[in-house]
Write a structure and sequence with these properties.
Layout: E1 3-4, H1 18-31, E2 35-36, E3 49-53, E4 56-62, E5 74-75, H2 78-99, E6 104-110, H3 113-120, H4 123-128, E7 132-136, E8 142-145, H5 151-156
Parallel strand pairs: 4-6, 6-7
Antiparallel strand pairs: 1-5, 2-3, 3-4, 7-8
């Protein structure tokens, strides 16, 4: 169930919905000279952000710390964050099965402690899948993290 951020013992430093995450990720990819389709907004279905550079495609599955259009102080609770993280991984596994291992698959989330802490519990296995994380900061800048084995690919295409 959604909860009030202001009443949490450790409130989130900032609040960000999925639409904002999608737009920030798309802007980041465009700034890195990727051709980016319009990011999904609202209740649209499909790849949240899809981009291409040459033959390399990027598939992004995003979540926020709050629902699109939620009241000012409402955020997802712990169970929702865990469920969203599991859905992100599942969705990216489906994309990877469909499009093959030579593409980039990204989990994108606001860089808040509650989401990072849950991600860290599965990070080692997510990296074994070859998935990359994009952590959106309060100012909408992006921190990219990924498996060491992908560093060369990510650097060569300007992703990192």
């Amino acid at each position: 169930m959604p909860k009030l951020n202001s009443l949490m013992r450790n409130p989130d430093r900032f609040l960000m919905d999925e639409d904002t995450v999608n737009v920030a990720v798309a802007e980041y990819l465009i700034s890195r000279r990727f051709q980016c389709e319009a990011p999904l907004v609202g209740r649209q279905h499909g790849v949240d952000v899809k981009a291409r550079k040459g033959s390399l495609e990027v598939f992004v599955e995003s979540k926020g710390s709050r629902k699109n259009g939620a009241e000012a102080d409402i955020v997802f609770d712990h169970a929702q964050i865990v469920t969203h993280l599991a859905k992100q991984i599942h969705t990216l596994m489906k994309y990877a099965t469909e499009h093959g291992p030579r593409q980039i698959y990204v989990l994108a989330n606001p860089d808040i402690d509650r989401i990072r802490n849950e991600y860290e519990k599965v990070a080692q296995m997510v990296e074994k899948l070859g998935f990359v994380c994009m952590w959106v900061q309060e100012d909408r800048s992006i921190k990219v993290e990924g498996p060491e084995e992908m560093r060369g690919v990510l650097e060569s295409c300007g992703f990192w």
